[in-house]
Amino acid sequence: MTSKNEIKQELRQQWIETPSWAYGNTGTRFKVYRNPAAARDPYEKIEDAALVHRLTGVAPSVALHIPWDRVDDYATLSKHAAELGMRIGAINPNIFQEDEYRLGSVCHPDPKVRRKATDHLLECVDIAVAVGSPTVSLWFADGTNYPGQDDIRARQDRLAEALRETYAAMPDGVGMLLEYKLFEPGFYTMDVPDWGTSLSHCLALGPKANVLVDTGHHAPGTNIEFIVACLLRLGRLGGFHFNSRFYADDDLLVGAADPYQLFRILSEIVAVGAHRPGSAVAFMLDQCHNIEDKVPAEIRSVMNVQEATAKALLVDREALKAAQQEGDVMGANGVLVDAFSTDVRPLLAELREEMGIDPDPIGAYARSGHAERVRAERAGSTGVGWGG
Amino acid sequence: MTSKNEIKQELRQQWIETPSWAYGNTGTRFKVYRNPAAARDPYEKIEDAALVHRLTGVAPSVALHIPWDRVDDYATLSKHAAELGMRIGAINPNIFQEDEYRLGSVCHPDPKVRRKATDHLLECVDIAVAVGSPTVSLWFADGTNYPGQDDIRARQDRLAEALRETYAAMPDGVGMLLEYKLFEPGFYTMDVPDWGTSLSHCLALGPKANVLVDTGHHAPGTNIEFIVACLLRLGRLGGFHFNSRFYADDDLLVGAADPYQLFRILSEIVAVGAHRPGSAVAFMLDQCHNIEDKVPAEIRSVMNVQEATAKALLVDREALKAAQQEGDVMGANGVLVDAFSTDVRPLLAELREEMGIDPDPIGAYARSGHAERVRAERAGSTGVGWGG
Amino acid sequence: MTSKNEIKQELRQQWIETPSWAYGNTGTRFKVYRNPAAARDPYEKIEDAALVHRLTGVAPSVALHIPWDRVDDYATLSKHAAELGMRIGAINPNIFQEDEYRLGSVCHPDPKVRRKATDHLLECVDIAVAVGSPTVSLWFADGTNYPGQDDIRARQDRLAEALRETYAAMPDGVGMLLEYKLFEPGFYTMDVPDWGTSLSHCLALGPKANVLVDTGHHAPGTNIEFIVACLLRLGRLGGFHFNSRFYADDDLLVGAADPYQLFRILSEIVAVGAHRPGSAVAFMLDQCHNIEDKVPAEIRSVMNVQEATAKALLVDREALKAAQQEGDVMGANGVLVDAFSTDVRPLLAELREEMGIDPDPIGAYARSGHAERVRAERAGSTGVGWGG
Amino acid sequence: MTSKNEIKQELRQQWIETPSWAYGNTGTRFKVYRNPAAARDPYEKIEDAALVHRLTGVAPSVALHIPWDRVDDYATLSKHAAELGMRIGAINPNIFQEDEYRLGSVCHPDPKVRRKATDHLLECVDIAVAVGSPTVSLWFADGTNYPGQDDIRARQDRLAEALRETYAAMPDGVGMLLEYKLFEPGFYTMDVPDWGTSLSHCLALGPKANVLVDTGHHAPGTNIEFIVACLLRLGRLGGFHFNSRFYADDDLLVGAADPYQLFRILSEIVAVGAHRPGSAVAFMLDQCHNIEDKVPAEIRSVMNVQEATAKALLVDREALKAAQQEGDVMGANGVLVDAFSTDVRPLLAELREEMGIDPDPIGAYARSGHAERVRAERAGSTGVGWGG
Question: What whole-number distance in Å separates Cα of residue B299 and Cα of residue D98?
Fold first, then answer.
């Protein structure tokens, strides 16, 4: 079994990316509740992300969403991040919030709309280069609401074409992630609804295109850790968008709905060392804090991934393998359950102290006065809707 | 078997209510696409609803949503409707779009918020009286996102209290409908998630409180016609919000996702005559036309309910009962399937001609020039979000 | 907060009933794998249940399934149980394994079949009296596979009639539980598919009829703890059939699929003291151990319920209530999560030692030699299928 | 648009394979109800299949399940089929009904079990050659019930190895189909749970391995026609197991649960001509008739696929494409709906008369006296369980 120090060593090097959009206002279709502490622009979002990193020690990068985070000068934004000890992580194009995209973006029946959408993808490749980001992370809101509304195969062909052009434009050092989602905003088809679709496009593109697993984007009952294990076996897992859900794409705090599932996912990751620095697998959060405060929600989420990783590191791999080989059903299951049942909070507190940070990040945040300060500063926010 | 003329006679008297909010802009949490033809205020919404009635002959009332449809003078609004040959139908309170309601309305932990929410319910009772509406139709967006966020039982008690006060305020001739919904916007609990919860509140209130079934508000796999049959047997089905869904509360055109399910629901209705005038069961549409034109979408939806009703009327009830009694599984099923397989479009075209309307309502709409006209008139719409 | 000693005192008195059928062979429709250690008759099943009680200290009764556990002389069976320190728990009629029941039992269109089925229910009331059982626990496999196959409302009426007759025959001291299940073996309707149906029948019967919640019998996404809380508020929760599932009615070990859900259910129970002796809520297991050994599977299941209860007892109810009142979303959630994150295994080991049993029931079972002994003794088992 | 005669010409050539196991007794885990008319051996099953073909005209082959249909002399069996005007279709290995397979077959941790299972696959290749079958159709019941029970990736490796060996043994003219299934009998993982897994194995094997879509094997909400369209686009759709379901793998008559879904699937098929003779896509039924008579159930199922195909052929492809190109959401949907709303029963009756068969196959079956005859002949059946 891995020793406590080895486990801490592994955890110390974990890298969990938070998304800029988690720091702004988000909501449901019924209402975006304004949070007076919500960040108002990319600079403030990076500041909030930097605070999350300072308090947790393992969140040193922040993902951007374009155009929500579009700025005139990316060098300045990148420098701003660096000064706060942060890097810019994945660049996420947004091609669903302009009226032209009502029927799709790169899958739209009209080539002019597709051209515009693909141009935005290419712009995002350029931004990735400009800010030193290793990744362009693609999620397409494309889909249809009614049977017959558009041709499923034709849309796949259009998608493939846009992906090829984007892939071809990517320089060395920039990779592509292709996310899938079962439904929403498309309510009949989504053009990339599942990992089978994403994988088949990635295989057609080449080794720099890989599948992104968003933990909230599956049909009820889907075994996510199975997909993770299969993608790892095929060398095609590009990363995660972590969040949790009870019903659909609820975008709740990761680990809040089913912490045992999160642990099982991390256990597959740890089994092949994909949690380590240098792994090809990106750990990113993607959540909407509709009713809770945003910075502490991200802190808690980072901690939840960290706790699940710690428990996964506690799994006695030799005992597990032995029980599996013997066909000892309950014994093998018991090895996993034992790790999950362990309270890793003391271990993580110890690790944080060794890293020179507060053992209690949530308490430290409360004591920091950040919430009170930004509520005053940002009170005049006029942001409406996502990205506002 | 019912004769063709009897079937037409039944269909001629059908009453399907369209909702004012179907004529305005709606969208998903990702984007509200503006439709230049969307109605801009309650008066225009009633005009659009009246057009749907003129073209279909069976949609003579329109439901309102308060405050989206709040006006200074309800008598004038009611008169406007009457002049267009319409009645005001169900009054739907909206207690989810103000910042105070972030954690709930009548279930909120803070009594001040509950007071405000209940006052809005009472206002809606007054509006119902003012406009001559027979129904206050309640849907609560109340719920929680995280385990422990609030006390489930305490919230039920608060809900019961607000319902009692509202029920007590309802004069003769006004009834209460209580809608349930599995999830959204609450992603952990909804305070009225299923028919069991709705029914138990209605039983506690009295005979004027009945369950409203929204066809998109169930867990995957739920047999809706079973619930309808049980509520009919118990005398507690108050009405429907019709729409359709493939995944969640997709709010697509009724009948668009699973026309056979719609037929089975109507078959339970027709079996007890609950489609007839004077029935206690209200037929209302509740849909969001995010990407399609709104008036034709409502026309098509009314026609879809009408077609399902016509097929339900075609079911040979004696043959069905005989096969059921004999335990003839495939024979009994075959009786239903035969009715569903019948093309009722010619029958409905004939009925429309007898009613003095165009046999092809969708074509008549296209030829009416309405879309072109309102697109020009309403171009300046500044509505944002639902109700805007 | 409750002290450690108080928590142990509560746990010491917990009562978890195991089912006789968990000790025999079970399987899927594809295959019943024979386990050479499976109990062959009611006497052996009670012996196995007694062993589970000896090793866990909190499983002092065993539920019977009739006719699987039919014997000539119930007094002798009851005495056998008493000698082993056990009581006979709930009596479960089985009216789905005779050819007459192909189209239903008490809901069958043929009154002769209904008579036979109701007579079996009455027999089970007599057996309950004979063995001193407090409960007749009803699950009906009745349902239909095809739309139209039978009349939904007529079947409800037939069900109500059989329940009334059975209820009327129940003497003081014997209560009725009415279980619901979404699907299987009926694949279109089940006659009691959800808690709304069960509750409405129980309300019609009287106070001795209450709802039984089987944790594996819900549609995907159903919030079970919400149902539990509502039934507790209404005073109509009769008990549980505990098990767990990833997909459908998988009948896996309770807590094996989602231990956090089990904890949340227990937290609702503990909040109203319904885990205590004298509570009206029965805690019963109902699982199928298709591929794992049966006795250790029941031991582990009892332990899982016990661990979830211990964690539920650790919830700081005052802190929870305070955070809820303040609308502190993450704070309130954090109180629950803190309890769940605690490792209660040491506490339970301590409790067991105080109770004079082995702190490690699974290890104690392995060391007991029971498996080896019964594998030899029971090798000649010819049982086929459930109950065989 | 396609003319009526062209449509009939297409339908005349349709080929729908029925499965031998549909003619024997099947059931749920709770009970296998014996049907006195059920076929008792492979010879009788082929006779029943031949009757279905005689009455429908489009079901000229029958799939076998080994060992349920194992005979000493396959040449004789094949000749028996030919004399009845039938061919032997897909050979389906069964590696889940022996005690060794409790923890899996080709994925089992023990190499001896894997050897035995793979040998059975190789035997089935030999049988396919012996009977002139073009296909070995693989479904693996392999999976696990508990997290940690076995290593997901190791099981994939073992599966890949067995598939490679089997694939290598397949002579020209024999292809492999790889079926996927979300759950059951595995309740935590299945080793081939979805089309992504099946496709990635087929890609690794070569062009003769293709994906089989069983319409009942998906998670709730899965859009099956999307998968069908993607597999067609990739040239990797091998065939169907048709059936229908409301909940899980209910194995009801195809088209009985959602006829509109079946139509949409067939519409994707027809759009690329994959329904035609010479297409690489096999149309097979795979159903369990637990409570209904078996031969008429297969007749009705063949008719349901035929009706869905007829409606798919009625789709006005030019109008559909035009509306799609224009972004006319409701117009495009309307083209599909118009085809679906058409009553094709008269067309099919006409086609049958032209083919020299009774226009009413169900009525013809009733009049044939087959049921009465075989009930007498087969009364002594002692078959128990599937395949018995």
Answer: 59
Q: What are phi and psi of D215, to 5 degrees?
A: -65, -10
Residue C182 forms contact with B (CB below 8 Å): yes
Q: Do D259 and B340 touch (CB under 8 A)?
A: yes
Give per-residue pLDDT as tens, A346-359: 999 999 999 999 99
Alpha helices by DSSP H, listed for C174-258, are 195-205, 224-234
Half-sphere exposure of A263 (CA within 13 A, CB side): 29
Task: Indicate if ipTM > 0.95.
Answer: yes
Task: Please tell me the distance from the alpha carbon of residue D162 to that of residue D122, in angstroms, as a whole number.
Answer: 10
Distance between CA B31 and CA A29 in Å, rounded? 8
A267 vs A259: CA distance, rounded Å = 12
* CB proximity C246 to A under 8 Å: yes
The secondary structure element, H or E, covering residue B338 is helix B329-341
Identify whether the C-beta of residue B195 lies closer than 8 Å to the C-beta of residue B217: no
Chain B: residue nearest D339 by CA?
Answer: B343
A252 touches chain B (CB under 8 A): yes
Q: Give the best residue of B32, B33, B94, B139 to mutate against chain A (max A CB count within 10 A).
A: B33
Specify the 3-state DSSP secondary structure of A297: helix
- The whole-model pTM stands at 0.98
How many Cβ atoms are within 10 Å of D85's Cβ, its own excluded? 10
DSSP states of C282-344: EEEE----SSS-HHHHHHHHHHHHHHHHHHHHHS-HHHHHHHHHHT-HHHHHHHHHHHHHS--
What is the set of domains in chain D, with CATH numbers?
A: 4-315+360-377 (3.20.20.150)
A150 vs D335: CB contact, 8 Å cut-off?
no
- Establish if B293 touches chain A: CB-CB under 8 angstroms: no
A37 in D contact zone (CB under 8 Å): no
User: From the CA of D337, how many Å to the nearest CA of chain B?
Assistant: 9
- Cβ separation A221–C220 shorter than 8 A: yes
Query: With contact defined as beta carbons under 8 Å apart, do C335 and C290 qualify?
Result: no
* Ramachandran category for residue A72: left, alpha or beta (phi over 0 → left; psi -120 to 50 → alpha): alpha
- Tell me whether residues B146 and A252 touch, CB distance under 8 A: yes
pLDDT digits (tens, 9 = 90+) for D114-147: 999 999 999 999 999 999 999 999 999 999 999 9
The torsion of the CA quartet D363, D368, D369, D375, rounded to 10 degrees, works out to: -90
User: Could you tell me if B31 lies within 8 Å of chain A, comparing CB atoms?
Assistant: yes
Inter-chain CB proximity B327 and C157 less than 8 Å: no
Cα separations (Å) of C193 from C140, C187, D67, D364?
10, 11, 37, 38
Burial class (CB in 10 A: 0-12, 13-18, 19+), B161: middle
**Closest CB from C220, C256, C260 relative to A258:** C260
Contact B220 C220 (CB under 8 A): yes
> What's the gap in Å between the CA of C107 and the closest CA on chain B?
12
d(CA D42, CA D111): 32
Nearby residues of D172 by Cβ (< 8 Å), 6 or more positions away:
none
- Report the amino acid identity of residue B232: L
Provide, as residue numbers in chain C, all residues whose Cβ is less than 8 Å from the Cβ of B260.
147
Looking at the partner chain, which of B109, B156, B200 has a beta carbon nearest the beta carbon of C324? B109
My answer on whether omega of the bond before C185 falls inside 30° of 0, hence cis, is yes
Nearest chain D residue (CA) to C31: D97
Spatial separation of the C-alpha atoms in residues B20 and B88, rounded to whole Å? 10
Query: How do residues A124-176 score in pLDDT, each as one tens digit?
Result: 999 999 999 999 999 999 999 999 999 999 999 999 999 999 999 999 999 99
Structure tokens at A8: 């801490």
